[in-house]
Amino acid sequence: MAGRGTGPDFVEALARGLDVLTCFGSERPAMSLSEVAAAAELARPTARRLLLTLEELGFVRSDDGLFRLTPKVLTLGMAYVGALGLWDIARPHLESLVARTGESSSMAQLDGADIVYVARVAVPKLITLRVEIGTRFPAAQTSQGKVLLAGLAPDELASTLAEPSRSGLPPYIGRTTEQLHDELAEVRARGWALADEELAPGVRSVAVPVRDGTGAVRAAANVTVHAAETSTQTLLGEHLPALLRTAGEISGEWATWQRRPHVEVARAETA
Q1: Cβ neighbours of residue 197 closer than 8 Å, sequence gap 6 or more
Q2: What is the set of domains in the chain, with CATH numbers?
Q3: Exposed, middle or buried: residue 190 (CB in 10 Å: 0-12, 13-18, 19+)?
Q4: 119 band by pLDDT with thresholds 50, 70 and 90
Q5: Contact at 8 Å (CB) between 47 and 37?
Q6: Does 203 score more than 80 pLDDT?
Q7: pLDDT of the residue at 271
Q8: Rounded to 5 degrees, what angle do the CA atoms 29, 32, 34 make?
Q9: Quick one: pLDDT at residue 217?
Q10: Shortest CA distance to 190 belongs to which of 246, 143, 256?
Q11: Strand partners, 207
């Protein structure tokens, strides 16, 4: 991974530190120094210095020769979500939606050819995929991803689909590029997308756009069900209308939040 920067201001040391953080995951929650060095494609002494620095900063901890991420890494992603104001606005609406449907609901945003989950309210059901904040999936295989891809301009869509997925999942081979473009045109026209066991067996979901104050699609909200328990007809006939209302409420409140002046007034210090 080292040496990939091309700009004169590219900081290789920072890039290597981020490589170390991102090499951890659900499949590799704890790793030895040698494993981190191999996963991040770094020399062992370099990996050691980076890990010790991250440990001193509180992003990594070590125990019995194994390194693990700490909850502090969540501050990196939540700073972005918090800056948008989206999660604070969406949370009560998603909780209300889950209470009505009895199914899990999430919000995601587009990052290259993948979606990344930025909010989730889950119910305890047997779903074949583990999903949490920061989980990454190929956009074209998910209902949320289809909504987000459909919101892109043609040139941006082409460049996005040309990017490789960083989710670690194998490429989806059940649909041609032309079929995907046709489906995205339908999603754009009707305002929602369905993913029926495309990401994993038993996982069925419907998603709708969440828009900012300009009307641009900035996120997608979904309802996810177990295919063996909930039919497509129930998902679209009962849960989709509730999801559309919820996304509309979130979009409206978010637009209002974005219009207000964001100026922090320092409190006068008292003697």
Answers
A1: 203, 204, 227
A2: 12-69 (1.10.10.10), 76-259 (3.30.450.40)
A3: exposed
A4: confident
A5: yes
A6: yes
A7: 39
A8: 125
A9: 92
A10: 143
A11: 193, 222
